[in-house]
């Protein structure tokens, strides 16, 4: 029989995605054996997470609670006429690390998934349409994940935007086989994208 406090930590950690019972036990025991300042820092950080982080009302990126709108939108060097659409806020930071994009972002808040109960109405699609209109956008880059849900969401976005803004340029991030990957290990969606996006040598 484990001490109640240790059981509570194991139970709490077990709610994290990808953390099973055994992993939760290892994490909890590690925290118990470690300097208690480590646990305190983690606890303090978790409390601040909800107090000091919020969603940008314009782009739905994550921002400090002291900010009104994301700096990635208000920065004068950013091209507001180009909007790159992603599923989740953390996708933005993956793209920002490339230092190859100078437009603005729009976070959908997920992808259409009937199994998970996520419908188009729950995504920030209406807000995207409003932004295209207000910022007089000339291009929307759809950067949803290469999954069944991501593809379905991309098709809906393309249809919705092209019907409302016939002159709007709608593009997708190039998709295909990453360097160093054998064909036998590639999934069907990746292989299909690689075939459809093939280039001349």
Account of the protein in words:
The chain is α/β, with parallel strands linked by helices and 201 residues long. The chain has two domains: 4-54, Orthogonal Bundle (Helicase, Ruva Protein, domain 3); 58-172, Dna Topoisomerase Vi A Subunit, Chain: A, domain 2 (3-Layer(aba) Sandwich), CATH 3.40.1360. It is 44% helix and 13% strand. It contains eight helices and six strands. It has helices at 4-13, 21-33, 36-52, 71-74, 89-96, 125-134, 148-164, 188-196; strands at 53-55, 62-64, 79-86, 103-107, 139-142, 169-172. The strands form two sheets. Strands 4-3-5-6 form a four-stranded parallel beta sheet. Strand 5, helix 7 and strand 6 (169-172) form a beta-alpha-beta unit. Helix 1 (4-13) packs across helix 2. The longest helix is centred in the first third of the chain and has 17 residues, at 36-52. The radius of gyration is 21 Å and the shape is globular. The termini are far apart. The mean pLDDT is 91.
- Specify the structural class: alpha/beta
Largest sheet: 4 strands, parallel
Distance between the termini: 66 Å
Low-confidence stretches: none
TL;DR of this structure?
With 201 residues, this protein is α/β, with parallel strands linked by helices.
SSE blueprint and pairings:
Blueprint: H1 4-13, H2 21-33, H3 36-52, E1 53-55, E2 62-64, H4 71-74, E3 79-86, H5 89-96, E4 103-107, H6 125-134, E5 139-142, H7 148-164, E6 169-172, H8 188-196
Parallel strand pairs: 3-4, 3-5, 5-6
Antiparallel strand pairs: 1-2
Helix pairs in contact: 1-2
């Amino acid at each position: 029989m484990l001490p109640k406090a240790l059981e509570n930590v194991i139970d709490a950690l077990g709610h994290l995605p990808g953390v099973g019972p055994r992993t939760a036990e290892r994490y909890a025991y590690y925290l118990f054996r470690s300097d208690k300042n480590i646990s305190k820092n983690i606890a303090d950080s978790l409390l601040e997470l909800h107090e000091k982080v919020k969603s940008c009302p314009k782009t739905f990126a994550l921002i400090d609670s002291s900010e009104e709108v994301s700096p990635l939108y208000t920065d004068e060097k950013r091209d507001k006429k180009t909007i790159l659409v992603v599923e989740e806020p953390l996708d933005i930071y993956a793209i920002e690390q490339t230092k190859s994009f100078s437009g603005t972002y729009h976070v959908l808040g997920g992808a259409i998934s009937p199994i998970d109960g996520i419908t188009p109405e729950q995504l920030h699609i209406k807000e995207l349409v409003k932004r295209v209109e207000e910022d007089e956008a000339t291009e929307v880059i759809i950067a949803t994940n290469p999954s069944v849900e991501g593809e379905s969401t991309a098709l809906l976005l393309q249809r919705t935007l092209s019907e409302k803004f016939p002159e709007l340029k709608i593009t997708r991030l190039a998709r295909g086989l990453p360097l160093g990957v054998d064909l036998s290990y590639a999934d069907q969606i990746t292989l299909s994208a690689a075939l459809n996006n093939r280039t001349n040598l």
